[in-house]
Amino acid sequence: MIARPFAELSSIGVAVPPGVLTNHDLAGMLDTSDDWIVERTGIRERRIATAEQSVAMLSRDACQRALEGAGITATDVDSIVLATATPDRLLPPTACDLQALLGAHRAAAFDISAACPGFVFALTVAEGLIASGQSGTVLVVGAEKLSTITDFEDRSTAILFGDGAGAVVVRRSSSQGRGILSTYIKSDGRLAPLLYRPGGGSADPISEKVVCERSHFMKMSGREVFKAAVLAMAEACDEAIRRAGVAAEEIDLLIPHQANLRIIEATAKHAGLPMSKVMVNLDRYGNTSSASIPLALEQAISEGRVGEGSLLLLVAFGAGFTWGSSVIRW
Ligand code: ACO
User: Would you give the DSSP letter of residue 174?
Assistant: First the structure.
């Protein structure tokens, strides 16, 4: 039996672009309405970055806040693990651009591509880096500029996504019992065509055809993704709780991926948690993929819903399909 916790989350920082796109704005662009979007998703507005605000820049702002919170500087960082579905460039990793912006010269920096649960996957990798002795201090980042891969002519996806970044400093666990008590990650590549970007990668490089067919934007079979998300999030909750050796009733706060309020409600119901024990902020940010859990966690901390010793359950689902979860003693 492995002796956890190896790693703890020492601090958190977030950054969102100031530009707000409301449901009413979308209703002026597409055949949709505020009522429909709120009723089907719970989303009211989302943040949209400008052309100048890169994923690396949003990540830098989030990381600087996290470093400040931990009382350390960028040169104390051993590794940067950045989860994103929207890298600034396909080469080099966005984590390396972030490393340069931060001046984290001692670090190894790399990206993780695991869609919406990317933050949970990155946290799992960070824990492994710490447990193996490879790193003592890891910056785990979830950052997205989903507005660049969203088709604003497609009402079935344009209403869902937003931009933002969140980062945590993960360090060797300093006190008995505090830190990451369990992680669980899973995927099923057979379901990839239900949520994907067909064009613009090496299989179908960017070309006039790709742009004309709009295949560089996300395509989603919403209803199928919804059903799979509910099942996978439920399984992931069970598995993280089981692996942590805790009871569901002990969870103080569920911090789910913020994709759809109805998916979150179904997940909470499965876990036997009342909505008063669930963090929801998708009304303000929409689905920010790998940034969504750190954005929700930071807000929960600011609102005083997470304190020392709080038992947290993180759970997420996304393209791939990929899903994952973690139980953390704050
Ligand atoms: N406004 C108005 N009507 C709409 C809109 C819209 N924005 N979008 C779709 N509709 C219509 C459809 O055309 C359909 O009309 P029809 O009945 O005449 O055919 C009707 O509304 C119902 O459409 P559904 O797709 O069945 O609606 P549903 O209730 O499933 O909601 C939604 C759609 C919100 C996309 C939902 O399926 C969903 O949230 N799916 C999961 C998405 C998700 O969680 N993704 C997570 C991963 S994201 C990642 O990894 C990057």
Answer: -
The mean pLDDT of 106-118, rounded to a whole number, is: 98
pLDDT score for 176: 79
- Confidence tier at 3 by pLDDT (50, 70, 90): confident
Residue nearest to atom 10 of ligand 1 (CA): 156
* Model confidence pTM above 0.85: yes
Ligand 1: which residue has its CA nearest to atom 33?
222
Which superfamily does CATH assign the domain made up of 180-329 to? Thiolase/Chalcone synthase (3.40.47.10)
Indicate which residues carry an active-site annotation: 116, 257, 287
pLDDT of res. 97: 98
Each residue's pLDDT tens digit, 153-199? 999 999 999 999 999 999 999 887 899 999 999 999 999 999 999 99
Tokens describing residue 179: 């830190």
- Report how far ligand 1's centroid is from the alpha carbon of 222 (Å): 5
Instruction: Give the integer Cα–Cα distance in Å for 119 and 84.
Output: 8
CATH architecture of the domain with range 7-176: 3-Layer(aba) Sandwich (3.40)
User: Alpha-carbon distance 270 to 231, whole Å?
Assistant: 10
The answer, yes or no, to whether any atom of ligand 1 lies below 6 A from the CB of 157, is no
Task: Supply the pLDDT for residue 2.
Answer: 60
Ligand 1 mutation pick, 121, 226, 257, 283, max ligand atoms within 8 A of CB: 226
Backbone φ/ψ region at 40: left (φ over 0), alpha (ψ -120 to 50), beta: alpha
321 upstream amide cis, omega within 30 of 0: yes
CA gyration radius, the chain: 19
The alpha carbon of 173 and the centre of ligand 1 are apart by a number of angstroms equal to 42
Task: Please state the domain extents for the chain.
Answer: 7-176, 180-329
What distance in angstroms lies between residue 42's CA and the mean position of ligand 1's atoms?
12
